[in-house]
Amino acid sequence: xxxxxxxxxxxxxxxxxxxxxxxxxxxxxxxxxxxxxxxxxxxxxxxxxxxxxxxxxxxxxxxxxxxxxxxxxxxxxxxxxxxxxxxxxxxxxxxxxxxxxxxxxxxxxxxxxxxxxxxxxxxxxxxxxxxxxxxxxxxxxxxxxxxxxxxxxxxxxxxxxxxxxxxxxxxxxxxxxxxxxxxxxxxxxxxxxxxxx
Length: 197
Known about the structure:
The protein is mainly alpha-helical. The chain has helices at 2-14, 18-46, 61-83, 86-109, 122-143, 151-196. Helix 5 packs antiparallel against helix 6 (151-196). The model has no long low-confidence stretch (mean pLDDT 92).
């Protein structure tokens, strides 16, 4: 498993160049500015302004059933529809952004042989748990008012892990950016010092 993850990490790093990072930033920005606000407003209307599993850090199975009940039949159908349309694309958009930019910055910021190069895998696990969240919550919504044991409990865990991994990826992105800038500055200082000699 470790060997496979290392290979995936190296493959991602190979294609994480300045231009793939730039493309990912453009796509992420356009999606955030032009698509996300409309989807958010539509979701708020369809769910009657109620809480959403996607935006919660964690929720119990009882809280998930309360959300399902508050949505009503139409709201639950709208929720499921959004999970298998918009929410199929959005994780790919933010995932591409995080993988490409984080991978590119890590190559600049730290040595190639460092185990921290594997941090470019973190967004992939965030995407995985995002999809698991969508599947499990949609199953609960679709079967409501029937109970969906185990899945209803796991949904909250999937959501918590999603936020932990995605949040961690953004934090690492900021750290990698500062380390990359620092490394470039110190490398420039060394070159200036050598030229003076």
